[in-house]
C-alpha cells in the first residue's frame, strides 16, 4: 500500500492545529526576512537574500517531503527548511552573520551567505548518516540554475536503488527507491541552459524528480517578458507533457497564494513521482517578492504602483490569512496573536544568535588587549601600544580581522624587545586556531581520504603476452563492477559500443543498461548525474568523451562538486569519479590538454594524469576505496599500445599524489606526465648519445602534487630542472614549477634557471604537422635540454645554432 493510500483521516481540530502551525511557521519566516534585511542595512551582516513572498508554497512542499527525500534548491527556501525542522530562528541569523561554528550555523559554518541551505549527510567523522531516516537538503550554490544538474542525479539514484540488483542492503541510503528529489528555481533562472538540459535529461531518464518554479514575474529587475517566451515556462514546456503513447512529464500549475490548492498539487506530484518514477514540473504562479531581490537594492525602482498594489493584495501570507478567517479556522484576533508572538520570537532568536556570534570574538579581543597592555609596560613604544590596545578595546562588536590586524601591527613595533616572543607565539597560535574555521575540508578529513591510500603493485604472469592497453582497462572495469554493485558508469557511447575506445567493451551486456549506460550529448548533466548519485551513497563514474568537452561541465565541477565538502564544513560529500581522455590527438577541438584552466578551476577535486592504462586502472581501484572526487585523464593515444595484463585486476592500486621516477639520471631532471612522457623518454635516449644523462619523473597526479616531495630530491642530485607540458605556456607548467621551486624549495639546489617547455599559445592545428609545430616534439625537448647544458658547460656542449 502506498503512503498516499495509507493516510489516516484526521479530525477538524487536528486539521486546524496543523494549518495554524503552518501559518505560524510562515509568519516566523517572514519576520526573519524583514529583520534580516535590517541587520544587513545596519551593518551587522554583509548581505541578505531572503524567501519572503514564497512562504506558502514552501509549506505545501514540506508537507509532501518525506524522510529520505532530497532537496536541490536555491536561496529562497528558508520557509521550507523551517517547516521540515532543519533550521530554526537562531540558525537563520547565525547564517546571516557568518558564524563559523557549525553547531550554530549548520548550513555551512559561515562559509556561504545566508539563504544557502544544507542538512548533514555525514557525521563529524565523515561517515554516512542514515539518509532514509532524515529529510535531506543538498548544499545550495549561488550560480543560477547550478542546482539543476545535481538534482537529476539525486533523482536518478532512486531509480538505481529500485532497479539494480545487489543494492538491497544499502538501506541507509534508500528504501526501494521510494525517495523523490525536489528541485526549486526562480522563474527567471529557467532561462539558463542548465535548466533546459536537466529538464530534457530527466524526461528521457524518467526519474522521480519534482521541479518547482517560483514565479514572481521578475529576475532581479528584469521582467518575465525579457526572460521567457510567452512569459510562461509551463506553457512553453507543454511538449514535455506525457500522454498515453509517450513518456514525459506531468506538468502542473497552481497559484502561489492558494494554500489548499498548493497542498493538493504537491500531494499529487509526490504520488506521481514517488510511485511511478515520472518527473513532475510544478509552475507556481502569481508569487510576490515583498522586499525585492536582495539587500542590494529596492524593488520600488522597477515595479510600478499598480504592480506594488497587486503584490500587497496577493501576498501569499495575506491570502492565507484571509483563507483561515473565511473558513472559520481562526479569528483575526488569533492570527494577530500569532503575528505578535512571531515578532517576539524572531527578535529574541536574533539577539541570541548575535550574542553567540560575538561572544567568542569579544573574549579573543580581551585576551589580546591584556597581552598588549602587558607588553606595553616594558616597551619603548609604551604610549603607542597602549593607544592601539585602547582602540581595539573600544570596538563594541569586533571581528577577527580587527583582532589579528592589531596584533600584527604591534609585532612590528617590538621586534627587538622582550615581549616579541610572547606576541609572536600568540599570533601563531591564534592563526592555527582560527584559520581552519575558514579553510578546512577542501578535501575529506575522514579516515577514507586519499592520503590514507597505499600502493598495491600490479602483478603479472611472466609468460603472458602484451595486449592492447584498452583490454587492461576493460578487464579492470569488469572486476570493479563485479566487486562493487554500487558502481556504475555512464557517458556518450559508453554503453552499447563500450566507449569510443572500447575500454568498456561487453560491459553493458554483462551488467545491464542501468549500470553501463549511454547518455545524450549533455556534459553538464552527465556531471550532475554523477554528483547527485554520489551524494546518495552510490559510486558513479561519469564519462566525458574527450577532455576538451569538459569545458561544458567545468562550471558544475568548479562551483558544485569541488566546493561541496568545503561549503558544508565536511558534512556532505560526493566521491564522484570523472573519466575522460586527452593529450596528443590532433586538431583544435580534440587536442585535450587545457590542464592549467582545469587544475585552477576545480581545487577540491583530484586531477590524475596516468601515463598508461595500467596506471589509470590503479587509480580507479584506489579511488573506489576512498571518499573524494577525482578527474582521471586517460591518454587518448594509448589504448592500442601494448601493455601486460595484470593478474590482480581490481586490486592493484596506483598511489595518489606520488610521483614515479621512470629513468635515473645525473645531469638534469625532466618532469612531465601523460602522453608527453613517451616523447620525453625518446628525447632522453637521444640525449644519452651526446653525453647528457636525464632523470625522468612522471608526475602522475597534478592535484595533489608530489606529497612526498620526491622531485626536489632528484633536483638535489641533478641541480637542473625542465618541466615539459603540452598545455599553453604558463598553464599547468607554471603551476608545476611553482610547486617544485617554491613549495619544495628546489631553488636551493639549482645551478641553472628552472625552465618550462610547453605548447604554442594557440590551439593545436590539425594533422601530424599541425601537432609537430604546435606541441613539444622530441626535437624540441632535446634542444631545450641541450641548451641548458650548453649554458652550464659551453666547452663540452657546443652551441647547436
Automatic annotation (TrEMBL):
Pfam families: E1_dh (PF00676), Transket_pyr (PF02779), Transketolase_C (PF02780). It comes from the Bacteria. Its cofactor is thiamine diphosphate. Coiled coil: none annotated. Residues 467-641 form the Transketolase-like pyrimidine-binding domain. SMART domains: Transket_pyr. Its EC number is 1.2.4.4. Keywords: Oxidoreductase, Thiamine pyrophosphate. It is an enzyme of class 1 (oxidoreductase). E1 component of the 2-oxoglutarate dehydrogenase (OGDH) complex which catalyzes the decarboxylation of 2-oxoglutarate, the first step in the conversion of 2-oxoglutarate to succinyl-CoA and CO(2). This is 3-methyl-2-oxobutanoate dehydrogenase (2-methylpropanoyl-transferring).
Amino acid at each position: 500500500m502506498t503512503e498516499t493510500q495509507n493516510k489516516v483521516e484526521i479530525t477538524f481540530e487536528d486539521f486546524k492545529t496543523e494549518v495554524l502551525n503552518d501559518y505560524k511557521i510562515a509568519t516566523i519566516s517572514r519576520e526573519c526576512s524583514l529583520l534580516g534585511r535590517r541587520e544587513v542595512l545596519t551593518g551587522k551582516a554583509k548581505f541578505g537574500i531572503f524567501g519572503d513572498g514564497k512562504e506558502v508554497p514552501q509549506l505545501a512542499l514540506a508537507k509532501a517531503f518525506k524522510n529520505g527525500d532530497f532537496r536541490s534548491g536555491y536561496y529562497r527556501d528558508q520557509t521550507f527548511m523551517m517547516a521540515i525542522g532543519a533550521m530554526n530562528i537562531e540558525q537563520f541569523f547565525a547564517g546571516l552573520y557568518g558564524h563559523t561554528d557549525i553547531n550554530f550555523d549548520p548550513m555551512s559554518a559561515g562559509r556561504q551567505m545566508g539563504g544557502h541551505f544544507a542538512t548533514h549527510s555525514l557525521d563529524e567523522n565523515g561517515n554516512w548518516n542514515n539518509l532514509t531516516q532524515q529529510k535531506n537538503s543538498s548544499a545550495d550554490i549561488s550560480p543560477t540554475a547550478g542546482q539543476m544538474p545535481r538534482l537529476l542525479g539525486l533523482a536518478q539514484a532512486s531509480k538505481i536503488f529500485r532497479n539494480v540488483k545487489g543494492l538491497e542492503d544499502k538501506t541507509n541510503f534508500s528504501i526501494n527507491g521510494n525517495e523523490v528529489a525536489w528541485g526549486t528555481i526562480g522563474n527567471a533562472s529557467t532561462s539558463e541552459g542548465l535548466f533546459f538540459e536537466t529538464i530534457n535529461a530527466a524526461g528521457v531518464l524518467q526519474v522521480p524528480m519534482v521541479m518547482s518554479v517560483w514565479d514572481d514575474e521578475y529576475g532581479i529587475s528584469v521582467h518575465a517578458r525579457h526572460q521567457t517566451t510567452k512569459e510562461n515556462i509551463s506553457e512553453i514546456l507543454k511538449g514535455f507533457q506525457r500522454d498515453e503513447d509517450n513518456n514525459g512529464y506531468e506538468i502542473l500549475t497552481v497559484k502561489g497564494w492558494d494554500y489548499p490548492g498548493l497542498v493538493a498539487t504537491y500531494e499529487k506530484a509526490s504520488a506521481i513521482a514517488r510511485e511511478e518514477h515520472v518527473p513532475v514540473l510544478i509552475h507556481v504562479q502569481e508569487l510576490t517578492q515583498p522586499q525585492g531581490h536582495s539587500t542590494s537594492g529596492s524593488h520600488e525602482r522597477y515595479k510600478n504602483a499598480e504592480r506594488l498594489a497587486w503584490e500587497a493584495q496577493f501576498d501569499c501570507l495575506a491570502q492565507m490569512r484571509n483563507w483561515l478567517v473565511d473558513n472559520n479556522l481562526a479569528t483575526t484576533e488569533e492570527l494577530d496573536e500569532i503575528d505578535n508572538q512571531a515578532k517576539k520570537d524572531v527578535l529574541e532568536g536574533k539577539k541570541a544568535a548575535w550574542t553567540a556570534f560575538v561572544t567568542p570574538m569579544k573574549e579573543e579581543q580581551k585576551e589580546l588587549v591584556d597581552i598588549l597592555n602587558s607588553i606595553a609596560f616594558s616597551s619603548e613604544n609604551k604610549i603607542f601600544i597602549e593607544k592601539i590596545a585602547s582602540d581595539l578595546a573600544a570596538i563594541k562588536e569586533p571581528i577577527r580581522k580587527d583582532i589579528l590586524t592589531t596584533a600584527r601591527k604591534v609585532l612590528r613595533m617590538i621586534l627587538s624587545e622582550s615581549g616579541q616572543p610572547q606576541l609572536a607565539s600568540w599570533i601563531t597560535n591564534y592563526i592555527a586556531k582560527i584559520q581552519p574555521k575558514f579553510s578546512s575540508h577542501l578535501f575529506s578529513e575522514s579516515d577514507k581520504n586519499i592520503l590514507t591510500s597505499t600502493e598495491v603493485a600490479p602483478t603479472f604472469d611472466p609468460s603472458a603476452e602484451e595486449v592492447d592497453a584498452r583490454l587492461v582497462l576493460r578487464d579492470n572495469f569488469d572486476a570493479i563492477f563485479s566487486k562493487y554493485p554500487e558502481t556504475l558508469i555512464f557517458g556518450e557511447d559508453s554503453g552499447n559500443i563500450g566507449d569510443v575506445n572500447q575500454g568498456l567493451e561487453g560491459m553493458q551486456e554483462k551488467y545491464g543498461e542501468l549500470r553501463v549506460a549511454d547518455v545524450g550529448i549533455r556534459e553538464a548533466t552527465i556531471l550532475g548525474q554523477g554528483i547527485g548519485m554520489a551524494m546518495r551513497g552510490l559510486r558513479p563514474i561519469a564519462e566525458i568523451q574527450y577532455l576538451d568537452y569538459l569545458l561544458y561541465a567545468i562550471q558544475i565541477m568548479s562551483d558544485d562538486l569541488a566546493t561541496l565538502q568545503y561549503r558544508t564544513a565536511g558534512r556532505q560529500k560526493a566521491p564522484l569519479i570523472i573519466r575522460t581522455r586527452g593529450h596528443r590527438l590532433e586538431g583544435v577541438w580534440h587536442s585535450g590538454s587545457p590542464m592549467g584552466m582545469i587544475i585552477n578551476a576545480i581545487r577540491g577535486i583530484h586531477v590524475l594524469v596516468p601515463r598508461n592504462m595500467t596506471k589509470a586502472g590503479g587509480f580507479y581501484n584506489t579511488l573506489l576505496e576512498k571518499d573524494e572526487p577525482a578527474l582521471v585523464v586517460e591518454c587518448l593515444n594509448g589504448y592500442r599500445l601494448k601493455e601486460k595484463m595484470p593478474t590482480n585486476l581490481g586490486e592493484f592500486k596506483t598511489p595518489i599524489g606520488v610521483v614515479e621516477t621512470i629513468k635515473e639520471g645525473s645531469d638534469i631532471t625532466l618532469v612531465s606526465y601523460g602522453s608527453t612522457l613517451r616523447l620525453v623518454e625518446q628525447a632522453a635516449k637521444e640525449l644519452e648519445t651526446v653525453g647528457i644523462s636525464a632523470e625522468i619523473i612522471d608526475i602522475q597526479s597534478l592535484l595533489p602534487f608530489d606529497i612526498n616531495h620526491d622531485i626536489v630530491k632528484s633536483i638535489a642530485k641533478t641541480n637542473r630542472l625542465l618541466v615539459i607540458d603540452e598545455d599553453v605556456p604558463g598553464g599547468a607548467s607554471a603551476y608545476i614549477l611553482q610547486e617544485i621551486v617554491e613549495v619544495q624549495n628546489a631553488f636551493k639546489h639549482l645551478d641553472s634557471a628552472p625552465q618550462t617547455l610547453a605548447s604554442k599559445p594557440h590551439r593545436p592545428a590539425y594533422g601530424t604537422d599541425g601537432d609537430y609545430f604546435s606541441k613539444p616534439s622530441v626535437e624540441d625537448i632535446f634542444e631545450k635540454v641541450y641548451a641548458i647544458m650548453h649554458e652550464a658547460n659551453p666547452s663540452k656542449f657546443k652551441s647547436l645554432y
